Amino acid sequence: MALILCLETATEVCSVALFLDEKLVGIRESSARNVHSAMLTTFIDELIKASDFSLGELDAIAVSMGPGSYTGLRIGVATAKGLCYALDKPLIAVPTLQAMAAGINYELRITNYESGDESANRHLSFVIRNSDYPVLFCPMLDARRMEVYCAVFDETNTEVQTVRAEIIDEFSFRELLQEHVVFFGGEGAAKCKPLLENHPNAFFPNGIQASASFMISIAANFFKQQRFENLAYFEPFYLKDFIAGKPRVKGLRS
Known about the structure:
Blueprint: E1 3-8, E2 14-20, E3 23-30, H1 36-50, E4 60-64, H2 70-87, E5 91-94, H3 96-110, H4 118-130, E6 135-142, E7 147-153, E8 159-167, H5 174-179, E9 181-185, H6 189-196, E10 202-203, H7 216-224
Parallel strand pairs: 1-4, 4-5, 6-9, 9-10
Antiparallel strand pairs: 1-2, 2-3, 6-7, 7-8
């Protein structure tokens, strides 16, 4: 059995989950903006204290590796590395979009979403089981303007379209939707929904966002494979170079 601490900070969500042999021991998370630096270590401390375990009993620490928020990824990876160094534990890097795809798949199978249209939510669960088309999952993270970071995965969580930055327009995913049912999820899906929601093969389930609870199946598999990162050289996967925003403090604008 493996005791794994999972950290998810790639988006606005700050999430920490503890798993024993792929069973959830506890979770702490917040979707409030810009709380990662203040809350991540607090969540870890609360979670460990509420469990019957100590940090020293961890078998590994898993961190969401990106793509995503530059600042969020830096905070999560730095915290994970610090714990691994201090505790002499291995580091597992979990692709952010793959974990989200696993979460969309899982949530669709077990949950009727909390939205105003319960019959539509039940229909989503029905489609994934009974469609004549192969079912795919497309998690999306919000990037700048009409751009998203996305990838496409099948029902086994195998990547079928690689991670990329996509500028969304009315032609996006047209070929994919001709022969597949696609479930779009994550914070970036809101950009895509107005353009694609009327397509019969495009579905946009509500309420799905990044969470450390979605990381465990991948993290556990990597642990079994002993697929660990080099603590000295591992860096997050940013996908695109960091672009600093213009300062808003008077007198600092160039």
